[in-house]
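task queued by scheduler; priority normal; single chain, no ligands, no partner chains; default sampling; output format set to structure tokens
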Amino acid sequence: MKKQVLLLLSSLFLCMAAPQAADAMNFTFFGIPIANLGEHVARVEKLPKTPDYSLPSGKKEVHVDLGIYHSQFSILGIPLLNWGKKTYVFYHTSLFGGTQYVKLTDEAVEGLNKSLGLNIPKEPKLSFWHRWGGKLLVLIPVLFIAAISRS
């Protein structure tokens, strides 16, 4: 009886920790995101809520923001590794976590700079958190444990 209960609980655990069918590289446990491997959009600028910055989504239009599309590996929302080409996008994140985006051309980014008075660099650059935050959060405890173990 104990073996059957243990088998049932372990199979339930594996089912809850398995990747979701809609996005095969997002691993969740009871709906809590554990790891993400793949595309990610990081917000660069919150745009005004006007019809100029809206995209059609089904029967209604949704407000968009300016972001950088790139590939990322993260654990518990902490970015550990970024790779691939970085591109500016207009994006919208839905209530259920899906992200819709439209890639922007260099001319569109220049137009945003002029129309909104922004200073967006020509080459997309991720924030300090996305570039180094996760690495520091992992490195500092590892160094601390190494220092304690040497004593």
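post-processing summary
- The longest strand covers residues 78-93.
- Residues 128-150 form the longest helix (23 residues).
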